[in-house]
Structure formats: C-alpha cells, structure tokens
C-alpha cells in the first residue's frame, strides 16, 4: 500500500475513539425494592397463571353450547387454543380464557390435531375434562400464521 492510499487517522484521538464506539443502549428500568414489587407492572412475579390445570364441566343438554370457541390446529401449523369464552357460561365459570392451550380433552391428545378433528371431538361430548395451559405467546402466533389481526385486549 502506498503512502497516498493509506487511510488517515484523525489528529484528535478523542474524536477518533468517539466515532468508533458502539451505539448507546437503552438504560434499564429503575431498581425497585422487592417489597414494593408486588402489583408493580414491571415486576409481575405471579407465574401461577401459566401452570398446567384441569377443568371439568358438563353440558346440561346435548344441544347446548360449550361456552368457548377454538382456533388453530395442525392444519395451520400450530396447536389448538381457546379463542373466546362466553361470559357467564360454564366454561367461563371454570376458568377457561382466551390464550389457553388445550393439551387434551377427555384423554384425547390435542397436541397434533387438526381444527376439524378437534370440533368433532368437542361436538360429541356432554362431559368435558380438559387439561389446559395458559400460553398467550403461542395463541398470538396463530394469528401470524393465518394472517389475521389478533384481538385487542
């Protein structure tokens, strides 16, 4: 490399170092003492809503609604989720909510089931014992896969 093509280093070393620094990062939120974290939006430590749970209920009539709707399925490349619950329905009273991942219903594994197969299973039941897990991340991914806009909470 000849002297004419050699890159020039600025005479001001501070300016040279400033130009080569990585971009500044966003500062973390302020530290909050542990006793003040309960109920604070930045420190929600209640993870119990994400635990596996079982709910059991019965339809009074075979033509009565179950009280919830589903979305997803293996045909959409995802699992089956509760997408809506009718207020004051039996499903609502046992604690079902949008974003619940259905793991099984009456010992029928829902891990790799299509939407239509899930509907067939649900339509033929009067008594339901469901294993659920609240998993909102996967639930919102079902909207990405179908190209629909997710509901606004």
Automatic annotation (TrEMBL):
Residues 54-124 form the PDZ domain. Transmembrane segments: none annotated. InterPro entries: MAM_complex_regulator (IPR051109), PDZ (IPR001478), PDZ_sf (IPR036034). PROSITE patterns: PDZ. One of its GO terms (cellular component) is presynapse. One of its GO terms (molecular function) is protein-macromolecule adaptor activity. Pfam families: PDZ. It comes from the Eukaryota. GO terms for biological process: neurotransmitter secretion; pore complex assembly; regulation of synaptic assembly at neuromuscular junction; synaptic vesicle transport. This is PDZ domain-containing protein. It comes from Strongylocentrotus purpuratus (Purple sea urchin).
